[in-house]
Amino acid sequence: MTADRHDRIPWLIALIAVQSLCAAFFLWDVLEDMGPRGLRALSNLHIATETLAALALVAGIAFETRYLMRLLRRTAHLEEQVSIASGAFHEIILAHFDQWRLSPAESDVAMFAIKGFSIAETARLRGSAEGTVKAQLNAVYRKSGVSGRGALLGLLVDDLLDGGVMPERPSAPLERP
Questions:
Q1: Quick one: which of 48, 78, 101, 155 has the fewest CB in 10 Å?
Q2: Tell me: the pLDDT tens digits for 86-123?
Q3: 10 Å Cβ neighbour count for 32?
Q4: Which among 53, 82, 111 is the end of a domain?
Q5: Which residue, 13, 22, 132, 141, is CA-closest to 71?
Q6: What local confidence, expressed as pLDDT, does residue 170 receive?
Q7: At 171, phi and psi to the nearest 5?
Q8: Please, which pLDDT band fits residue 34 given cuts at 50, 70 and 90?
Q9: Cα–Cα distance, 7 to 10 (Å, whole number)
Q10: Are residues 110 and 41 in the same domain?
Q11: How many CB atoms lie within 10 A of CB 136?
Q12: Which helix (H) or strand (E) holds 82?
């Protein structure tokens, strides 16, 4: 759930609380209007309409509360699944880096490439020359058997979707559709 959606939850809870106060007021008003006549007062169209409106409001509050709780449970579940997938993807990346025998510098540059950083950004963040980053990135492509950044990312995502690290990759660049 995005931060924007998380910010809406207190507002939804506040709205349900205000509706609950209104429902309590309307139910109290209905009971006051019924007075000593009790349920016979419902024969009065005004009191019957007020009663139905108050009961509909209570039903709406119950529905909103259940729906909000279901959304919160679903959100928690999805956030957990994203966390698991993120961890699995990271494990796949590290396993491939080990399999390809990348140096620490190559692993670092490869991680920046996977995250979408440009060569210039990677060089600036690492305090390296752009030529050094290019050479390290080319070594990553050669060792992984891919021809570029998109193919590298595709290879890793394919393994995530397949559920694990694939067997040894050929050292020649792969043609990817």
A1: 101
A2: 888 888 899 999 999 999 999 999 999 999 999 999 99
A3: 8
A4: 82
A5: 13
A6: 46
A7: -80, -20
A8: confident
A9: 7
A10: no
A11: 24
A12: helix 45-99
What's the DSSP call for residue 173?
Answer: P
Kindly provide the b/e burial profile for residues 71-101, where b requires at least 16 CB atoms within 10 angstroms of the residue's own CB.
eeeeeeeeeeeeeeeeeeeeebbeebbeebe
The answer to whether position 91 is within a domain reads no
The pLDDT value given to residue 3: 55
Report the phi/psi class of residue 67: left, alpha or beta, with left for phi > 0 and alpha for psi in -120 to 50. alpha
Full domain range(s) for residue 25: 3-82
Residue 141's nearest CA partner among 126, 119, 160 is 119
One-letter amino acid of 19: Q
Q: Is residue 167 part of a domain?
A: no
Which one-letter amino acid corresponds to residue 60? G
Count, residues in the chain = 177
State which amino acid sits at residue 3.
A
Query: What are 107's two structure tokens?
Result: 């692993």
Residue at a domain's end among 55, 82, 109: 82
Closest CA to 51 of 39, 63, 61: 39
Q: Which two tokens stand for residue 158?
A: 């394919």
